Amino acid sequence: MKKVLVTGFMSFPGVPENPSQLLVEELAKFEPEEYKLTCQILPVEYDFCAKYVAQLSSDYDLVIHVGVDVKAKRNKLEMRGQNKCGTGKDSSGKVGPETISEKGSDFYSSIPFDRVSENLSFEHDLSEDAGNYLCNFTLFNSLQKFEHKNVLFYHITDISLNPINQQLVWLEELIGQLLKR
Predict the structure, then answer these.
(1) 1 near 36, Cβ under 8 Å?
(2) What is the pTM of this model?
(3) Which of 64, 98, 99, 166 has its CA 20 to 30 A from that of 49?
(4) What span, in angstroms and rounded, lies between the C-alpha atoms of 86 and 25?
(5) Structure confidence at residue 13 as a pLDDT band (50, 70, 90)
């Protein structure tokens, strides 16, 4: 049976209630027959996320990190982790490293995004810019850890645009499409 990890994030400065946390908590209530699902909510802290990704088992078949982009009008499938961080402070007050790793430049996921994208029933965007905060930091570290394989950052909109129950349907559909390949 395939193993799937889905993470969401806790609240952070400017986002007192993180829709990604609500979404992943709802997803965790399901026990799919097709795959073994593990859900985890992560604090928005550089040190924690770096340690969390480093200790992950390499036997996951798919890793999806879910975060919110409060400015987005549509959900986004992030294809690239950039080897950089901005100057925004995490929940602990820490600023991320200017360069995440000495081992490389940007990393791209091996997921065939064009094929997956054309089979999704909901509007979304493909993106190569996960930002310069914890979203990109976590994506970059995960792509490095899993050697670019089957890792995705999924940016969702604010729930004022798409409620959690609709986001849940879309996330389940995305997981199904990603496992088909």
Answers:
(1) yes
(2) 0.96
(3) 166
(4) 28
(5) confident
